Amino acid sequence: MISLHRMILATAAAVASFTLAAAPSPVRGDDVKLLNVSYDPTRELYKDINTVFARQWKAQSGQNVVIDQSHGGSGKQSRAVLDGLEADVVTLGLGHDIDALKEGGLVAPEWQTRLPHGSTPFTSTIVFVVRKNNPKQIKDWPDLLHKGVQVIVPNPKTSGGARWAYLAGWGQAARRNNGGEAAARAYITDLFKHVPILDSGARGSTTTFVQRHQGDVLLAWENEALLTVNEFGKDKYQVVYPPISVLAEPPVSVVDKVVDKHGTRAVAEAYLKFLFTDEAQEIGAKNYYRPRSEAVAQKHADQFPKIETFTVNDIDAGGWSKIQPKHFSDGGVFDQIYSKK
User: For the domain bounded by 4-123+249-303, which CATH number is listed?
Assistant: First the structure.
């Protein structure tokens, strides 16, 4: 597994709006090339998956496949594809960002039904990363609002992980003592008063917390949190699981218009189907993503503490189609509450 420390250094040095995990790979005449445009914390996951898939595709077809990666905030990545970045596949942070590609005529309307589990091969949730010995004694969502606590979280306008974190805070507040929407809005308004900086993506926020030593708590994807603690040391950081959080379901899709242009549909579809195999699910678990495979999940049960979760549909029955415009579009709830910061 590639070092998170090296990847954070690379992220801190990045100046482009999106980042290729490596320089574009050379392609011979008989090779096929894919570009996987993904969200921030998946660099390590897809580096490992690409190696195994390329070996399997070579054995099956006799053809070399070269897979390049692009990473950034999920919303920014979706916009980059809409603006012309020719992704063969997208593996983004939330369904809305692929729906935007559907609305742009790049992805088929039925994209979410083409693969199991709504085209989401892994799940995650939002947890807290705190510094050694948890000096601010942060154990649950209300603790983030205590005086003097600084919270590090990316910008929900550009980051899928930030939107999941926002919804985790919103949903738990709505459920606490049956507080409903008024309690949820009050909580989110107060929460973002404790946020000193908004990075564009999840890995940028990890850099802010770990490299720049800002903040008392990082709101993070579970996989990013576990990777951070295991890479930088349990003597420096620890993961805190709140009693309840959101079930994060990051989806995948081929970009139909691009694969048909490139002639890469067969290998792109095989690549995404591979994500649901037990072999890829094992790779996901080793990178701290919760497997969809029951057999693999049981094997790694000790790695993933049980936590009560709710879904986006529990927040709004319309799911992302209602949540995105209400909360994250220009003039939505986030703009309203953050402008008052």
Answer: 3.40.190.10
Q: Which helix (H) or strand (E) holds 285?
A: helix 278-286
How would you list the strands of the sheet with 32-39, edge to edge?
A: 19-20, 65-72, 32-39, 89-91, 252-254
**Beta carbons within 8 Å of 316's beta carbon, 6+ residues apart:** 322, 323, 326
Q: What are the extents of the domains in the chain?
A: 4-123+249-303, 126-248+306-338
**CA 58 to CA 64: how far, in whole Å?**
5
65-72 and 32-39 strand pairing:
parallel
Parts of the chain with a pLDDT under 70: 1-29, 340-341
The domain over range 126-248+306-338 is classified in CATH as 3.40.190.10:
yes
Q: What is the dihedral of CA 127, 157, 210, 284, to 10 degrees?
A: 50
126-248+306-338 has the same fold as 4-123+249-303: yes
Q: pTM of this prediction?
A: 0.89
| Segment holding 32, helix H or strand E | strand 32-39
Both structure tokens of 245: 């959080």
Sequence length of the chain is 341
Radius of gyration of the CA atoms of the chain, in A: 19
Q: Is 52 exposed, middle or buried (0-12, 13-18, 19+ CB in 10 A)?
A: middle
